Amino acid sequence: MDESETMDHGETAKGVSCAEATAAALRVLRAPELVGKVFLEGGLVPWVLSGRDSGRLHGDIDFSVRLENMPDVRAWLVREGLHDLALDSRHAPCNVDGEDHGAHARIDGVLASFCPFFFRDGALVQRNAEQRAFAGYDALFEATVPGLVETDFVEVRELPGCGRVGLATLEACRAAKVASGRPKDLADIAELDRLGYDEGRMERVARAFAAADVACTAYSG
Predict the structure, then answer these.
(1) Alpha helix locations (H) across 30-169?
(2) What is the CATH number of the domain that holds 41?
(3) Domain count, the chain
């Protein structure tokens, strides 16, 4: 679940072109050690798939990562010279237990979030964080989506010219965009509709997202 649909990052208002955001996203998605572990989310997904330009600015890029794969993400960020302790949730002052709520990184000038997910009591749980470095405060968030299975949430697809990459399903993207109700998402929804989606999966995902809950578990201003 793209938590930026409900929690905008501080840099969203600036934004970069669709081409710049796509290039930064593909730098991550095409890293051999991250294939099948990192999944692009949000409004960039349909445009990466179609190869068309969204015609709007993108404030950040969002990735979902299985919680157990976050060490691989951090190792890659370190090797690429992109790991910043100030953008890592484990070092946030409000994170007294040191639990992993993901990390942010500036990749080729684009703010990227890596949000860990796991399953608890039959529900998908995705974590995210805001850091003082870009939001002006530190906070930890946890979204719980009952009844959402991983295969309806993320998948690996063959992208022409790029090989296998991890993406949120079209249905998960569309459900998140519809739930956000933001005017800027209308073009993304239209592109998702143009690409086509599975009606049965769409119904399952929309039902799960309708029952989702987002909680702030820790905060320091």
Answers:
(1) 45-50, 70-79, 132-135, 150-153
(2) 3.30.460.40
(3) 1
Q: How far apart are CA 29 and CA 166, in angstroms?
A: 7
Among all chains, which residue has been given the structure tokens 């990735």?
63
Full domain range(s) for residue 196? 3-220
Which single residue is written with the structure tokens 């974590």?
Answer: 127
Q: What's the rounded Cα separation, in Å, for the pair 85 and 80?
A: 14
Task: Look up tokens 């010279």; give the residue.
Answer: 81
Tell whether pTM > 0.85: yes
Mean pLDDT, residues 76-87: 97
Question: What confidence tens digit (pLDDT) does each residue in 179-205 have?
Answer: 888 888 999 999 999 999 999 999 999
DSSP class of 68: G
- Contact between residue 197 and residue 191 where contact means Cβ atoms under 8 Å apart: no
Question: In the predicted model, what is the mean pLDDT of residues 39-54?
Answer: 96
- Does residue 10 sit in helix, strand or coil? coil
CA–CA separation, 38 vs 4, rounded Å? 17
What is the rounded distance in angstroms from the CA atom of residue 16 to the CA atom of residue 28? 17
pLDDT(9) > 50 = no
